[in-house]
Structure formats: C-alpha cells, structure tokens
Amino acid sequence: MTRASLRHSLLLALLGALSACSILPAAEPLRAYLLPTSASPARAATQPQAMTLRIQTPHASRLLATPRIAVIPVGSQISSYRGARWSDAAPTLLRDRLIETFQGSGRVASVVSEDSGLQAERELASQLLAFQAEYVDGAPLVVVRLDAQLADGQTQRVLASRRFEVRQPSRDASLDEVVSAFGQASDALAGQLLDWILQQ
C-alpha cells in the first residue's frame, strides 16, 4: 500500500469516527404555539352592519414582526422565550384573530384581509406597538398595544383613530400560562376594536 493510499484510508477512518461520535450538543426542541382563543362570543341577534371591512396586517418593529414570543424580563431589555415561538409572525396572528372575532360576532356583513381583491367600504390599518410579556414585581403581565386608524375604503381618508391597550396578568410564570394570557389579551383587544369601529 502506497503512502498516499494509506493516508487516504486513515483520513476516511478518522472522518467515520468523528461522525459516529459528535461533540455537538443535541438541538433543543422548538415548541410552536398557536394564539389561543377563549370561547366564541354569541352572535348578535340584530342585523349585521352592511359593510365590508378590510383588516390590514398591523405594521410592527423588527423585534415584534417575527414569530418570537417577546418578553421584557427586567427594565427595558427585550428578549424572547428560548425554545418557543408563535406559529406565525405576531402581527399576522393578531390580524387573523381580529378577522375571526369580527366574522364570528355577526355584527359586520363581511370581513376580508389585505390579500383579498374584494372592494371594501372601510379599512382598518394599525401599528402594533407592544405584543409582549413584561415582568412586574416578578410576575408576567402580557401587554398588547395597538394604534388603529379606520379609513374610507375608496378615498383612503382617515375617519377615526385611537390607541388601544390591554394588560392581561398571567396566572403564573409558566410559558403555557403566559401564552394563554396572550390569547385573552388579544380577544379583549378584538372586542374593543369591534365596538369602536361600529360606533364610527
């Protein structure tokens, strides 16, 4: 056996041994969470308002426009829960929750997203300012803050604007309970938005 072939055989044996015994740690499992919802509200007994409402995906900062579950453990330092994420980017989850709530209420004739090519009499645009858990006196508190603008669907003229904020305590510090608090806060925000839009 030549020296070159011997070196080649030793190299192959070494690579085989390295692949069989990796020094890299096992990857941490990643848990993906849906945004939970509370029981569906009863449908309105009255006739729905005869309009089509388009709900745009809220704009958000780069830190919030991701699937990461944001948390502020102390001060103003924002982070995210390790090994966990949302099933979609936070603004998309909130948009879908608004559409689901508005349609389920029976109080609006039709609700569509910006992906739909259908015409709409009204449009809801918004800026998602907070969608995170914050620790207050050692206990997690979910904060959802949204600047909303209701506009005419044809002229794009802003008809009304308002800031909404929901602060929902988590029952304990476990991630499952924090996620549940996110769902409760999102449901409460959706209900407030719906009432506000129907008053305009």
Layout of secondary structure:
Layout: H1 3-20, E1 31-33, E2 49-55, E3 59-60, E4 68-74, E5 77-86, H2 90-105, E6 108-113, E7 122-136, E8 139-152, E9 158-169, H3 175-199
Parallel strand pairs: 1-5, 2-6, 2-7, 3-7, 4-7
Antiparallel strand pairs: 4-5, 7-8, 8-9
Helix pairs in contact: 2-3
CATH topological fold name: Rossmann fold
Give the full name of the CATH homologous superfamily. ABC-type transport auxiliary lipoprotein component
Percent of sequence in beta strands = 35-45%
**Main sheet characteristics:** 9 strands, mixed
Taking pLDDT < 50 over at least 5 consecutive residues as the criterion, the unreliable ranges are 17-22
| Radius of gyration from CA coordinates | 24 Å
Helix count, DSSP H or I runs of 4 or more residues: 3
Count of DSSP strands = 9
Distance between the termini: 89 Å
What is the averaged pLDDT score? Answer: 88
Helix content: 25-40%
Shape: elongated
Concise overview:
The chain is an alpha/beta fold and 200 residues long.
Keywords:
alpha/beta, Rossmann fold, nine-stranded mixed β-sheet, 9 strands
Question: What features would you describe in this structure?
Answer:
The protein is of the alpha/beta class. The protein has one domain: ABC-type transport auxiliary lipoprotein component (Rossmann fold, 3-Layer(aba) Sandwich), CATH 3.40.50.10610. It is 30% helix and 38% strand. Strands 1, 2, 3, 4, 5, 6, 7, 8 and 9 form a nine-stranded mixed sheet that branches. The longest helix is centred in the last third of the chain and has 25 residues, at 175-199. It starts with a helix and ends with a helix.
